[in-house]
Design brief:
There is one protein chain. This protein is an alpha+beta fold and 189 residues long. 24% of the residues lie in helices and 20% in strands. A hairpin with a 4-residue loop joins β3 and β4.
Length: 189
């Protein structure tokens, strides 16, 4: 983006990518972004290092400074090793696709061992399913449903979720973020 265009974009559309102290994003999905106000506040509180800037400035009566586009925390935050069991994390583990048909419309989740038969709501018994497949399977056991799973459920690590999150980038990625988002992706030979 050239500087002329960036100067016309609303500040609300200029978030800062937040990196941990090791220069890796705090999270990929959702992408770790802070508003421009939080980024500036953290700069003044000396909590972050400015890594890259937008081609625009912010001004006050007594100060003029470049608007940060990438910031890195000065203190390392230890990532969570065991992600919380949430609907969102189940969908992310399963890459937002039905584990029966591969579709991605009207997603819900399905208990492999139905709750009516004593099944629990946990990582090893729940998969992402579209509404149609969920209704089709109903309260049956998987082996009696005539359906097959694309992938059996498992407890993902934070790294698993980060890896899957890279497949679903936000609608907008600033050019200054690219070196920090995909630096650990294997290069083609």
């Amino acid at each position: 983006m050239n500087g002329f265009i960036e100067q016309k974009v609303s500040l609300e559309k200029c978030p800062a990518l937040v990196l941990n102290a090791d220069y890796r994003p705090l999270s990929y999905y959702p992408l770790s972004l802070w508003s421009w106000q939080d980024a500036i506040k953290s700069v003044f509180l000396d909590r972050v290092i400015i890594v890259s800037n937008y081609d625009r400035e912010i001004r006050s009566p007594s100060l003029k400074m470049p608007l940060p586009s990438v910031i890195a925390l000065k203190n390392y935050i230890v990532p969570v090793t065991k992600p919380s069991f949430t609907r969102f994390n189940v969908f992310l583990r399963d890459k937002f696709s039905c584990q029966y048909c591969g579709g991605n419309e009207e997603l819900t989740f399905d208990h492999l061992l139905p709750r009516s038969k004593g099944g629990e709501t946990n990582w090893s018994n729940v998969v992402t399913a579209c509404s149609a497949c969920n209704v089709k399977k109903g309260g049956k056991l998987l082996k009696f449903s005539g359906m097959q799973l694309n992938q059996y459920p498992y407890r993902p690590s934070t790294e698993d979720l980060h890896r899957n999150g890279k497949h679903f980038p936000p609608n907008y990625l600033h050019k200054s973020w690219m070196d920090y988002l995909y630096w650990d992706v294997e290069l083609e030979s």
